[in-house]
Design brief:
heterodimer, A: alpha/beta, Rossmann fold, 10 helices, 8 strands, globular, B: alpha+beta, Translation Initiation Factor IF3, four-stranded mixed sheet, 2 helices, about 30% helix, binds zinc ion
Chain lengths: ~270, ~70
């Protein structure tokens, strides 16, 4: 048990331990970390896959959906599991990849009533949700509970990703105060998406989570990467803290999670 | 007294990985003596350790396939 690692762990994590920025100490930090993944879909699949491989000790996975054949064009962890709950399928994938990881599944929808209690259990939240209602709920709950958040979203050939450290940098609402009005943006079910796109955005989110847990590098705080797969460009948009932000501003209007605000995906705010 | 680590039977890169893990348990300035019987490790491990700032105090050949590397932790 050199440094508290089993022989198997020394081999499994050797390429991490070799890195001066990680080492045995960093790997132990990862093994004792708790990360909550919102969604086990397009973004969730690569997020869960790489966080499990990296040895993030506890992974919470919340998803109330069932694996559908149409998911397998991009949700690479659900092979052979059509018809199963995605959270269960993801857990099975993680158990096969890395037995060190404890997986906690939540086969339910994140909502105003459960969000605070669930978030309290974790060091950081990764949002891989596919709708505005959840996205704003996650942002607001992270600000209120002071939980770091990796945000990612995808649409057709484009994706965006940023990291939110509440009260130390801007939040999602600082940039996009309210969700677009109903009908402006097609729901994820109606919108096409290039299958590899969530892989790129999700892996950037996983990278940010690992960096945050290790305390290394520069996070995407106050910066939003806008990725365009067709033109293969990564643009960086500066995000500023908005003093009038309804959740993290000087006089926030949202100080607790109230169900009315988040209801249906296209009816929020 | 130097701390000792026996890595006979171990090959690269685990020779370095295990030396590094042992060093993480020591205080700065403490010495570690590692025994190797894997010839490439005698070149590779000291080079990687120097990259991380540690000091190689000596490499001693004890037999045809047996070496002891003395390291001072940075
Ligand atoms: Zn804000």
């Amino acid at each position: 048990m050199l440094g508290g690692f089993s022989e198997e762990q020394i081999r499994r994590y050797s390429r991490h331990i070799i890195l001066p920025e990680v080492g045995g100490k960093g790997q132990k930090k990862l093994l004792s970390s708790k990360v909550l993944c919102i969604g086990a879909g397009g973004l969730g699949a690569p997020i869960i896959e790489y966080l499990a491989a990296a040895g993030v000790g506890t992974l919470g996975i919340i998803d109330d959906d069932i694996v559908d054949l149409s998911n397998l064009q991009r949700q690479v962890i659900h092979g052979g599991n059509v018809g199963k709950p995605k959270a269960e399928s993801a857990k099975q994938f993680v158990n096969n990849l890395n037995p060190d990881i404890e997986v906690k599944t939540y086969i339910e929808r994140l909502n105003a009533n459960n969000v605070i209690d669930i978030f309290k259990e974790y060091d950081i939240v990764v949002d891989g949700s596919d709708n505005f209602a959840t996205r704003y709920l996650v942002n607001d709950a992270c600000v209120i509970t002071d939980t770091p958040l990796s945000h990612g979203s995808i649409y057709r050939f484009e994706g965006q990703v940023t990291t939110i450290i509440p009260h130390k940098g801007p939040c999602y609402r600082c940039l996009f105060e309210h969700a677009p009005p109903p009908g402006m943006v097609p729901s994820c079910q109606e919108a096409g998406v290039l299958g590899v796109l969530p892989g790129i955005i999700g892996v950037i989110q996983a990278t940010e989570v690992v960096k945050y847990l290790l305390g290394i590098g520069e996070l995407l705080t106050g910066r939003l990467i806008y990725y365009d797969a067709l033109n293969m460009t990564f643009d960086e948009i500066k995000m500023r803290w908005n003093k009038q932000c309804p959740v993290c501003g000087e006089e926030p209007k949202i100080t607790s999670i109230q169900e009315e605000i988040y209801g249906e995906s296209c009816r929020i705010w | 007294m130097a701390v000792e680590l026996d890595l006979k039977g171990e090959v690269c890169p685990y020779t370095f990985v295990k030396t590094k893990l042992k060093l993480e348990e020591l205080e700065s300035g403490e010495e570690l003596c590692v025994t190797f019987d894997h010839a490439p490790a005698v070149e590779n491990v000291p080079r990687s350790l120097k990259n991380e700032g540690h000091k190689i105090m000596g490499i001693e050949q004890k037999g045809e396939h047996l070496w002891i590397v003395r390291i001072r932790k940075a």
